[in-house]
User: Fold this.
Amino acid sequence: VPVGSIMAIIKDGRAALVAVAATVACVAAHSSLVIPPSRNAVDKVLPPWKNGKYGTDGWGCNCANTSVPCDVAQSCFWFSQGCTIGCKTCDGGPSNPNTVDRCGSGMKPTVNNPLHRTFNRNATAGSAEDIYKHNPWRAAGSAPVYDPCGMAGGGPKEEPGEAKYTATVFAKQGDLGSKVLPPAPSGTVWKAGDVVETAWSIRANHGGGYQYRLCPSNETLTEECFQARPIPFAEKMALRWENGTQQMIPGTYVKDGVLPVGSTWAMNPLPYSNSASPPEFDPPCHETVDRLHNDTGKCSGRDPYDVLIIDWLVVPATTIPGDYVLGLRWDCEKSAQIWSACADITIV
Assistant:
C-alpha cells in the first residue's frame, strides 16, 4: 500500500482486515513501546485494536497505561526470532526456549556476571549447565536482527509461540518494519542535553535487557545507523501501574561485554517466574503471589503486562537538531528473540 494511501487510512480510521492469523498455543516474549507511541502500533486505527483493544484471536498485546488507553495494537508482534550470538542472520524458527548455537558460530557469551543474568544464574558462565548462553542478551547488541524496527510476526512464516501477525492493509507476516511502517509523528519533542521519559510494556517475559538508540529520519533505518547513536540512561528507573501509582526502583545497568562498545544497556527489572520456576532475583516491588496458582505477580512473572517500565534517558548534548527515529531493542535471554520498536521524535 503506498504511503499516501496509508496516511489517508490513518487519518479517517477506516480500514478492513485482510486476513486473520491462526491462534497458536505456546507463548514467546512480546513487548511494546508505549512512550513515545511507536510506528509499530500502526493498526491502532482499525476496529479490532482501536481504543486499546487487543484484537480478536485470543492473544494480543495486552498493556496497561494508567487511565489512558494503551494503544499498542499489534506492536508486540514486531520482532526477530531464531537469532543467536555470533550468527550473521536469524533463521526465523521456533526460539523459546533456545539452548543451542543456531549457526554453529562457537561465539562465547560476554555478559557473564551472574548479577546481570536473568536466568540460570547459578550456572558457571559458558559451561554446559549455562544453557541460555547462546541467546541475544548474553552478548547484548551482537546478535543479528531481521530489521531494526522488527519483522511482522518475527519471521518469514508463522510459527508456534505467538510468532504471528494478523494481516491488515498495513502489513503482513514477514514484512520489515523499516520498509512498510509509515512515519507516525508522535508530537514528542526532546531538547538536546535534557533528561527525557520513556515507557515500555512486557506482554510475555523472557528476561534479558534493552537499549534505546537514535537514527536520523532522513537516513536509511539500519541496525548500523541505530548502533551508532545509543542513548545513555540517566540511571533511574520506575514502575507504573494501571491505577496510576508509581514506584522508583534500582535499575541494573550493564556496560561490559555489550555492543556498541562504550554504551550502556539496562537489565529487564522484572524477573520471570512460573509454578515450576521461582524468580531468579528479587522482584523490585512488594508483592504477594502464590506461584503454585499464579505465574505473574505485581512486578514479576510470565505475563507482567499490568505494569510499565519507565526509564529516563539523557539526550546527548551534541545531537544535531532535527527529526529522528527512536529505536528500542530488547535482547532476550531465555529465547533466541529480539524485540524492536521505532518511534518518531523531534530533537531541538
Notes: The two ends are 32 Å apart (CA to CA).
